């Protein structure tokens, strides 16, 4: 290479020529690693080193947006090379479970075990819910997570290490002492029902594929080529089994699960150890009852022999263990009649068809509505009003229509005509090319969209106003109390003036009115990213909102930037917007369009008169510790470890958990132990807490 090696130079010290050369080198290097990883199944660098390259690339691009290359790795994200993950061979096969469908099957299972082991007494079993997700194997070597793999065919799965690292429930390092050198922890990745519903709503709004149930959406989310999408999907993990272990930390099933919990995993809180068949069956009944109220899908319970020496002796039959069985729940399907098809209008005008059903009990829950997803789905299944249909409580929560029982179709049933006018405002509803969703074009005048936007505005990840739920928003919109976001914040004042007093509404006592006003007042200060998300602009979910907020940092810069970007795609401001890593043209256009609309600008301005928007914390690029790797150890006196870490990150340093040659500083508090020793061995600079504060504070 003709240019000098600047790979260790802090980004803010790079000249433009250096940055240009380095971006070129990084693009080529990352592309080469991608090819080895995705196409040749032969990665050459560790994930951490790969991540470091990408981070370096992103940092340089953020500093020199005008130098972003057309073949930049950040532009290729999402369209990864070959659409497949590297294969991983499981050192111990990932097996499946035999099923029991009724009480007799369970009795037989227990009898079989007693015969096999020649026991008179029933041995102890663990009983736990069977999670309806996908199984995952996590390999730890010397306590560090080195590989995450899907089950695949049981022998060979897919390498999803980068994706699993983004899950909060998966520790990167095992906790505790005496960790065996090799630990393969296995369990289930799942998505909560509430997250699944939210995700589908977002997907439908954006015209993207909706998932049939939480299991599918967990599988789809885990196997994203772009791990940052996985990170945004709120996946969870329960540990319940293991593969290769170089030593066993316990000699019972429940002991192993207890050890997983100590090592930093989530384990299912409902797991029990029970002593006889009756207790197993009682457990099954109890969990089946709780099923609907859990926020994750389960499809049965699993019984496992408690003693591991017994498990060892029992072994396997073909591909399932003799020592475990899945006791399934009854299928949750039913047939009923479609009385009507309702069209719901979403926040961005999407029309969603909902079947209104003759009420029917499905697995213990009365169902009256089922989703029909979209226009094409209705046509594909040829669902008509008056039809008898089979429905399923997919994901336990929103039932879906599986299909029509044609023999029962009334003679006069006509094919369903999807409306081309919005049922809420009468505006045209159109389908853009390539989209599955039909949308109302009424925009700001459509009352259904207005209500949905307000609901979104007050929702949990936006303004999160307690006491302003779906019902209240609807009622307050209908009676004219709250028509725009700003109205929420002027509600108290108007109420005090005696305009339409809330206390006059039935069900509103003095306390509930006061609580509501307090809840609203608590939200008069809001971080910029939440505000951007709350605006409910199409394609601006939480992740994009954060990216945009970080870039502009203040509300003033944000508004000025977007108004200027409205001058056209040639404007400098528009270029600045699409140069934000992760923000593409579709997103940029959506947000620019939003701010071009006078009524939107007025609504935002009116809101800003009522609230204070907090700027985003910026990472300081030219601090003394920017670009340095810092390890904190021992207990600190002037600040908590968390604070110290946050401070370091704010100043642009990277905080690591372990000392290596790459560490720049070890900050040692009281009682620092092995890390201090390691620092001395490697000749890494050691700072006291005060030294650190001086160094960081002097920035
Ligand atoms: S134990 C050797 N426990 O069910 C078998 N599996 O049908 C180890 N599953 O592939 C599995 N919850 O994905 C076990 N509490 C649980 C489970 C569970 C869900 C899944 C797992 C497995 C499948 C077998």
Query: What's the name of the CATH homologous superfamily of the largest domain?
Result: DNA ligase/mRNA capping enzyme
Q: Provide a count of the helices.
A: 25
CATH class of the largest domain: Alpha Beta
Rg over CA atoms, rounded to whole Å, is 29 Å
How many structural domains can be distinguished in the coordinates? 5
Multimerization state = single chain
The SS-based structural class is: alpha+beta
Mean pLDDT over the residues:
88
The proportion of residues in beta strands is 15-25%
Q: First CA to last CA: what distance?
A: 34 Å
CATH architecture of the largest domain: 2-Layer Sandwich
Give the number of DSSP strands: 26
| Spatial sequence of strands, sheet with the most strands | 2-13-10-3-9
Shape: globular
> How much helix is in the residues?
25-40%
From the 3D structure, determine the CATH topology of the largest domain: D-amino Acid Aminotransferase, Chain A, domain 1
* Low-pLDDT segments: 77-83
Q: What small molecules does this complex bind?
A: 2-(butylsulfanyl)adenosine
What does this structure look like?
- The chain is built from 25 helices and 26 strands.
- With 699 residues, it is of the alpha+beta class.
- The protein has five domains: 66 residues, Orthogonal Bundle (Helix Hairpins), CATH 1.10.287.610; 241 residues, D-amino Acid Aminotransferase, Chain A, domain 1, CATH 3.30.470; 76 residues, OB fold (Dihydrolipoamide Acetyltransferase, E2P) (Beta Barrel); 187 residues, 5' to 3' exonuclease, C-terminal subdomain (DNA polymerase, domain 1); 68 residues, Rossmann fold, CATH 3.40.50.10190.
- The chain has a five-stranded mixed beta sheet with strand order 2-13-10-3-9.
- Helix 18 crosses helix 19 and helix 19 crosses helix 20.
- It is globular, with a radius of gyration of 29 Å.
- The site of 2-(butylsulfanyl)adenosine has 15 residues, from strand 3, strand 8 and strand 13.
């Amino acid at each position: 290479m003709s240019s000098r090696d600047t790979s260790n130079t802090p980004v803010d010290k790079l000249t433009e020529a250096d940055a240009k050369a380095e971006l070129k080198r990084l693009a080529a290097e990352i592309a080469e690693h991608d090819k080895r990883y995705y196409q040749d199944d032969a990665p050459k660098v560790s994930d951490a080193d790969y991540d470091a390259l990408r981070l370096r690339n992103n940092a340089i691009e953020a500093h020199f947006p005008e130098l972003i290359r057309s073949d930049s790795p950040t532009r290729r994200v999402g369209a990864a090379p070959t659409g497949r993950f590297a294969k991983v061979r499981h050192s111990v096969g990932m097996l499946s479970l035999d099923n029991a469908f009724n009480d007799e099957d369970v009795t037989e299972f227990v009898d079989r075990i007693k015969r096999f082991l020649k026991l008179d007494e029933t041995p102890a079993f663990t009983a736990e819910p069977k999670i309806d997700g996908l199984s995952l194997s996590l390999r730890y070597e010397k306590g560090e997570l080195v590989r995450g793999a899907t089950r695949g065919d049981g022998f060979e799965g897919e390498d999803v290490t980068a994706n699993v690292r983004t899950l909060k429930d998966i520790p990167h390092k095992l906790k505790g002492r005496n960790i065996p050198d090799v630990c393969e922890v296995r369990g289930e990745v799942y998505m909560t029902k509430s997250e699944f519903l939210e995700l589908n709503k977002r997907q439908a709004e954006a015209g993207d594929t909706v998932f049939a149930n939480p299991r599918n959406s967990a599988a789809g989310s885990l196997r994203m080529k772009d791990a940052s999408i996985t990170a945004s999907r709120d996946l969870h993990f329960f540990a319940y089994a293991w593969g290769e272990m170089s030593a066993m930390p316990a000699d019972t099933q429940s002991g192993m699960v207890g050890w997983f919990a100590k090592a930093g995993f989530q384990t299912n809180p409902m797991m029990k150890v029970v002593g006889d068949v009756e207790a197993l069956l009682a457990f099954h009944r109890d969990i089946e009852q709780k099923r609907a109220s859990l926020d994750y899908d389960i499809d049965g319970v699993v019984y496992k022999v408690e003693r591991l020496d017994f498990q060892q002796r029992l072994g396997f039959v073909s591909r399932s263990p003799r020592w475990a069985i899945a006791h399934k729940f009854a299928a949750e399907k039913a047939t009923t009649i479609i009385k009507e098809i309702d069209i719901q209008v979403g926040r961005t005008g999407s029309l969603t068809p909902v079947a209104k059903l003759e009420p029917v009990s499905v697995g213990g829950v009365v169902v009256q509505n089922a989703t029909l997803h979209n226009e094409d789905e209705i046509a594909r299944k040829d669902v008509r009003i008056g039809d008898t249909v089979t429905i399923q409580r997919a994901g336990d929560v929103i039932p879906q229509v599986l299909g029509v029982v044609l023999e029962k179709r009334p003679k006069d049933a006509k094919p369903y005509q999807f409306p081309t006018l919005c049922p809420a405002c009468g505006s045209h509803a159109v389908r853009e090319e390539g989209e599955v969703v039909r949308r109302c074009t009424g925009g700001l005048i459509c009352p259904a969209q207005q209500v949905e936007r307000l609901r979104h505005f007050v929702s949990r990840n936006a303004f999160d106003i307690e006491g302003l739920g779906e019902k209240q928003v609807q009622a307050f919109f209908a009676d004219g109390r709250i028509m725009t976001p700003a109205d929420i914040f002027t509600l108290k004042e108007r109420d005090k003036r005696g305009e339409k007093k809330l206390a006059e509404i039935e069900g509103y006592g003095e306390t509930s009115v006061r609580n509501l006003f307090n809840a609203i007042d608590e939200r008069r200060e809001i971080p910029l990213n939440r505000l951007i998300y709350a605006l409910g602009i199409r394609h601006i979910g939480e992740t994009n909102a954060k990216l945009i907020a970080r870039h502009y940092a203040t509300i003033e810069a944000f508004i000025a930037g977007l108004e200027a970007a409205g001058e056209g795609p040639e404007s400098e401001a528009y270029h600045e917007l699409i140069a934000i890593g992760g923000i593409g043209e579709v997103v940029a256009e959506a947000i620019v369009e939003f701010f071009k609309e006078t009524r939107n600008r007025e609504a935002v301005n009116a809101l800003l008169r009522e609230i204070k928007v907090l700027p985003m914390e910026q990472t300081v690029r030219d601090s003394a510790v920017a670009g340095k790797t810092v390890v904190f150890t021992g207990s600190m006196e002037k600040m908590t470890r968390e604070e110290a870490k946050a401070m370091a990150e704010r100043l642009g340093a990277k905080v690591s958990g372990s000392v290596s040659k790459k560490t720049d500083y070890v900050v040692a508090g009281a009682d620092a132990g092995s890390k201090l020793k390691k620092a001395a061995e490697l000749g890494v600079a050691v700072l006291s807490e005060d030294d650190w504060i001086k160094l960081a504070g002097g920035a």
